[in-house]
Structures are given as C-alpha cells and as structure tokens.
Amino acid sequence: MNIIENAIARGAENLNEYESKRFLATYGIPITREAIARSEEEVAAKASEIGYPVVLKGSDEALRHKTDLNLIALNLKDEKSARRAYHQLVSRSKAKLKEVLVQEMIEELRELMVGLYRDPQFGPCVMFGLGGIFTEIVEDIVFRVAPLTRKDAMEMLAEIKGEKILESFRGNPPIDRDKMTDILLALSQIGKEQPAIREIDVNPIKLVNGKPVAVDALVIFSSDPL
C-alpha cells in the first residue's frame, strides 16, 4: 500500500505535513530537508544532521493550522534553542504531541503558493499565487482546469498581479520558471491520477537560489471522489 492508501485505510481525513510533502516528492515536487523527532534527544540529533538554523513544528494530521495554534518555532540557531523549543511546543499543545517535525530554515522573504482543488463542475483545478500568512488578504491567485499544458502553466505565472515578485529581488535571483512550471504540471498529474485526493495546499513555497521549494503542505482526502 502507498502513503495515500495507508492513510485512508486507517481512517485519516488528510495526511500530516511530513506525509504530505513525502507524497508530493514522489511526483518530483521539491521539499525541505526535514525529519520526524519523538523526543528531545531526537530533536537535537535530527537538527544537527539537517544543520542550523532549523524550524520545529507540531506534527499530527489533526494540526491543519499550526501557526494559529502557536505550534511553530522558527530560526532555531543552536541545540539549546532547539531543545527549549521542543518543550515549549509540547507544553502548548492541548492534545499531547507524539512527534515534531524538524525542518531546515529557509529565510527567503518571497512566498508563493500552489494548490489542487476538485470542483464539482469542472473537476481538478490547479492554483498558483502569492503565499504566506497574508494569502487570504492579498488574494492574488489564478486557476486553470486540469490537465495543464506547459503553456498553461507558464501563463499562470505571468497572470498574477504581483508577477514582479518572481523577478530578481534584493540581490536574490529570479524564480526558476521552468521548475515552478514543473510543480504546477505535477499537481495537474496528481489531479488526474489520484481521485481520492480532494485538495492539496502547498503554502508557502519559498525560493532557494531561485529554485522553488515546498515549505509546508497539506493533502486532504475526498469522502466521495469526483
């Protein structure tokens, strides 16, 4: 059984962040370097392997909005701060956390988002736009009905009002449009091949030397695949 089948078999409504990104990676979508840790000692070990600075996040399929729940600790620069953050996250969680996600810290300011949604009329649709915590305020997003062509995906990049953010920014290189297009095409492919998936949110996507990398993701299942 694959990761989707396993989750559905255990009655899950969605994948947790770690599982979501592992699934996206099977379709060639770049993801952050990260690992699951289930104790303070594992946090220290995994953070050392990944390299500081790191981010710690509560990890559970029930935690869809970790920022709202104050279950993210950013820019941890050494072992002492990572250990302290682990205890803080565990104490903040109403339901006892069994594990945390240890993730590389990407400090790029630009944040984008992509997604897949199943519309009752049109079927799977792919989304692209500006991401981050102000997504719902800015609402600079565009959609295309899947399946996408490469031309469709390229046009989506050019259609957002904030397209200039994709160019060089404060000494950072422009986005690799080919790589970003590949991500949109991968989501289109998922929409065709995975009818059990109702929705995918990848927010934010950040840039590493211009290359897009998925920093957070959520895969949600459909109880009645369209």
What is the gist of this entry?
The chain has 226 residues and is of the alpha+beta class. It has helices spanning 3-9, 17-25, 40-50, 79-92, 135-138, 150-159, 177-193, and strands at residues 34-37, 54-58, 72-76, 100-104, 112-119, 123-130, 141-145, 197-208, 211-214, 217-221.
State which percent range the strand residues make up.
25-35%
CATH class of the largest domain: Alpha Beta
Order of helices and strands: HHEHEEHEEEHEHHEEE
Q: What is the CA-atom radius of gyration, in angstroms?
A: 18 Å
Number of helix segments?
Answer: 7
What is the number of E strands? 10
As residue ranges, the low-confidence spans are none
Into how many domains do the coordinates divide? 2
CATH superfamily membership of the largest domain, which one? Answer: ATP-grasp fold, B domain
Major sheet description: 6 strands, antiparallel
Annotated CATH topology of the largest domain: D-amino Acid Aminotransferase, Chain A, domain 1
- What is the 3D shape? globular
Q: What is the level-2 CATH architecture name of the largest domain?
A: 2-Layer Sandwich
Mean model confidence by pLDDT: 92
Query: Distance N terminus to C terminus?
Result: 22 Å
Helix content: 25-40%
How would you describe what is shown here?
There is one protein chain. With 226 residues, the chain is α+β, with helices and mostly antiparallel strands. The chain folds into two domains: 3-30 and 108-221, D-amino Acid Aminotransferase, Chain A, domain 1, CATH 3.30.470; 34-104, Dna Ligase, domain 1. The chain is built from seven helices and ten strands. The chain has helices at 3-9, 17-25, 40-50, 79-92, 135-138, 150-159, 177-193; strands at 34-37, 54-58, 72-76, 100-104, 112-119, 123-130, 141-145, 197-208, 211-214, 217-221. Strands 5, 6, 7, 8, 9 and 10 form a six-stranded antiparallel sheet that branches. The longest helix has 17 residues, at 177-193. The radius of gyration is 18 Å and the shape is globular. It starts with a helix and ends in a 5-residue tail after the last strand. The mean pLDDT is 92.
